[in-house]
Design a protein that fits this description.
The complex is a heterodimer. By secondary structure, chain A is of the alpha/beta class. Chain A has helices at 7-16, 21-39, 47-62, 105-112, 155-162, 179-185, 219-229, 271-283, 295-313, 315-321, 327-337, 341-361, 394-397, 403-406, 437-450, and strands at 42-45, 73-77, 116-121, 168-173, 188-191, 211-216, 260-263, 289-290, 367-371, 384-387, 390-393, 412-417, 426-431. Chain A contains 15 helices and 13 strands. Classes of the chains: A alpha/beta, B mainly alpha.
Amino acid sequence: MKSTASAAEIAQAVKSGETSARAVIAATLGRIEANNGRLGAFTDVTAARAMAQADRVDADVRAGKAGALAGVPFGAKNLFDLRDITTRAGSKVNRDNPPAKTDAHLVAKLEAAGAICVGALNMGEYAYDFTGENAHDGPSRNPHDLNHMSGGSSGGSATAVASGLVPLALCSDTNGSIRIPASFCGLFGLKPTYGRLSRHGTFPFVPSLDHLGPVARSVTDLALSYDAMQGFDEADPAMTKRPMELLAGRLEHGGSGYRVAVADGYFTGEPEAREAVAHVAKALEVARTVTIPDAAVARAAAFLITMSEGGALHLERLRERAADFDPDTRDRLIAGAMLPAAWIDRAQKFRRAYREKVLRLFQDVDAILAPVTPMRAPLIGQKVASVAGIEMPLRPNIGIYTQPISFIGLPVVAVPVWIGEYDLPIGVQIIAPPWREDIAMRIARRLEKSGAASAPVARGFADFE
Amino acid sequence: MSDVLRLPVVEAHRPGVKANLKTAGKMAALLEKAAVSDDAEPAPVFRA
């Protein structure tokens, strides 16, 4: 299979006997071997495990029991447990932990559907970055221009998919870590409703904000993986008991007819982001605007809760091994551990009221468009950027448009657009009411079909068959 | 505060920690301008 093949195409070819899972995985491992050195996508490659799973999938195909993702290779951000691998969560400190005894819940769900995990992916230390840079493993690079950031914290996941190493990767998103790498690397990303997918077997960051989800190069691939990962898991206390709502066969139904509006005010400050949203709005023939109230305050509250919960989570490690942290991460976490409880209490009270206000907007609209990032992917190593016309530290400000949305757990699909003379993409959020991933996914599919959004394998990586 | 937490902050780390506390203070100032009533319930475990 070519590096440009989608998960759906690979599964179809394996199920039909056109190729085997073993052949797919052998080719995948060859691509990783040839390219990972310059991309920095994978931190662990699980070749023997992958080949063994490929043989199981091929046996299932012969027995007429092939799953929906038969033979599809995928990678998992290295905060997902993979049995026999130490879950490093982007850190140096965690490397002293014993290997995981079992796979994370979502990894197991994907493999139960026939997908094949080929390794663990690079990420920002303890998921506390938006850049895709890692002080210990080096940066994961943007395949569309290797001098630019992949975005974080799921940078390796986006790098692996945008370069065609794998068609699918697992990510986490606390404040934007699925959507931001999708924006910088030109991918579709799904951050489901908080509580939709089990986080069991992943290293946490901010439990009241942590989400998991996939990035892919097509909306259909997002749907196939999302469907495979759904289902109640009592091991995650935040999980919903709602029935599964499968999407793969329902993407083509609708997509038009939804009441869509563009988020105004807070979300319109940056020219590149504004152009991206206008491009999507034009494709959807949307002229209506809506104001998400108190978005700046919501971002501030999410920022404080993140610092505080993150600082609390890592307090013991900060006491014992502060020198082994990435300095940028360490200083934020130490400060977070010392924040006054009064601020966090107020942030949590505000959070409930903010949620009620935003949910009222969905009485009149079905989906809201907003930018993912204020800008296209910055250069690796860049420390400042112009935000709202002011030179500001880059790292904490990449998430200004994603934080107010994940703060209240809304489902979002990030769609990549390519506009102007630039070689780098930028993403747009399609935001839906809780549990209505179907709306955001159908709108994303409509944009994909029209060509207004697309996620090609990066030039230079699509040709090495 | 670091003494109470038994979280030593060595001299070399202090500028970075102070800068982050300053940023947090700006965020908190924004939050304190927002109306939150006395009887508002917090959302410590959030469910969408």
